[in-house]
Description:
Blueprint: E1 17-22, H1 27-38, E2 43-50, H2 54-63, E3 68-71, H3 77-83, E4 90-93, H4 95-103, E5 108-111, H5 119-126, E6 131-134, H6 137-143, H7 145-154, E7 157-160, H8 163-172, E8 180-187, H9 197-201, H10 205-208, H11 218-226, H12 228-241, E9 248-252, E10 258-264, E11 269-273, H13 279-287, H14 301-304, H15 318-329, H16 333-349, H17 357-372, H18 381-404
Parallel strand pairs: 1-2, 1-5, 2-3, 3-4, 5-6, 6-7, 8-9
Antiparallel strand pairs: 8-10, 10-11
The structure holds nicotinamide-adenine-dinucleotide and magnesium ion.
The site of nicotinamide-adenine-dinucleotide (NAD) has 28 residues, from helix 1, helix 6 and helix 11.
Amino acid sequence: MSPVPLKNAEPAHGGVRTVSVLGATGSIGDSTMDLIRAEPERYQVEALTGNANVAGLAKLAKEFSARFVAVADPARLGELRAALAGTDVACGAGESAVIEAAARPADWVMAAISGAAGLKPALAAVDRGTTVALANKECLVCAGDFFMSRATAAGAQILPADSEHNALFQALASGNRHELTRVIITASGGPFRTWAAADIEQATLAQALKHPNWSMGQKITIDSASMMNKGLEVIEASYLFALSPDEIDVLVHPQSIVHGLVEFADRSVVAQLGAPDMRIPIAHCLGFPDRITGRAAKLDLAKIGQLTFEAPDFTRFPGLRLAYDALRTGNGATTVYNAANEVAVAAFIAQKIRFGAIARLVEDTLNSWVRAGNQAPLGSADDAIALDQQARNLAATLLPQIAAKAS
Ligand code: NAD
Ligand code: MG
């Protein structure tokens, strides 16, 4: 008797995998290092980077015998050198050192810097034609179509590490592009899912940082509360899988167990499920095309009991609507969407604006940019970075009037 054939009879990967982790000191970095720590004989750590946490970075460098570490803050080189004294770990500081870390030879690179600051390092890895696990959605949103074209040109393989996109990536494998009718990414709805608009408007930083299911970095946690994160993810899905906005739906699913679903022409819907633990999509990327042993809890659906779903509310969460608008506008609008959101989130953290003003600042920045009529396709990383800077300046100009205006 022959069993039903499974995809690969033999593992595709033997031997040691060289890995680099950009943003090693963050939340995704931490989950990635946890998976590497579990099977140290499978991996050689090439390079690690962090922004300013020298002690954390040096600790990881020593534990994993990294060959090179980079801290983004150029003022911390002396501190990093001192922390690594007596080891043979090479080190550097500043943006160029982070880019150097990304460009060093590694079979697999985790791109987990937060924000558009991750774009140049991610591109440095992509340009080597290596495998890049992409957690840093802002870099994709900032670079637009251009990022994936550059990956294709370099022969790099992009593996989606964001949980929803990783779910889609897994589910998409069960059909062909022309058979796909739509994809659905789920959203927990965040801490304000059931709140009235007037209460969301006044939400405090502490309330925005209380995510019901996921433990993540500060920026993405605030983006989840505003649903800007889902907006960024709709754009991310569009660029990653070359989908039109009409082919991407969002479904609110408070339990965060079903992460993404793909609907095919025959009306089959294929979904990926798992505990809300980033180590699951990261493990998928780390092992790909094989599967490694995970570190997250096994899914116990009987214990969870109920999975519920609801339609997203584009009125209470205008950030989601704006993402579809930006995607339809194209020609750099998603770069502006991301940049304005980064400025707005920083202003909210600094308590310069109310929570409700985050989406207003993004909307005003987008409108003002569209009115100025400077839209053009992004042809290079420099175009994306220039537009990102232009949009940040525009958002900063609009910020005082948004801050002064009561809703
Ligand atoms: P985090 O804030 O915990 O970590 C960010 C990392 O980037 C840190 O190592 C930090 O030192 C580094 N960094 C920050 N600014 C930098 C700069 N200017 N230059 C160089 N390095 C810099 O964030 P996180 O939650 O780990 O998220 C990282 C990325 O992954 C984000 O793009 C986020 O949207 C995405 N993501 C995160 C999760 C999650 O569960 N945390 C899930 C999906 C996607
Ligand atoms: Mg996600």
